[in-house]
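Suppose you are handed a protein chain with no further information: no name, no annotation, nothing but its sequence. What can you learn? This example shows the usual starting point.
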Amino acid sequence: MTIDTTLKALLSETLKRSVGDEENVTRADEPAWNSLLHMELVFMIEDEFGIEFEADEIAELASRAQIAARIGELVEASGA
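A reasonable first move is to predict its three-dimensional structure. Written in structure tokens, the prediction is:
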């Protein structure tokens, strides 16, 4: 599975709706994506990919595209 495919599945599970293949879900446009769901999503991503976000960057992760890019950077840096 690719990063984007896995992230799409995690977003769909967290938001409790189907996220489209090319849909760039954002916190600003998604009413269900509140701070509690955001932390749940962050923990799910960290567990799934074996990565850890810095505390100060968690609030900045505000869209599917942005999260996917950061996951890619962290995965690459870890050599996984």
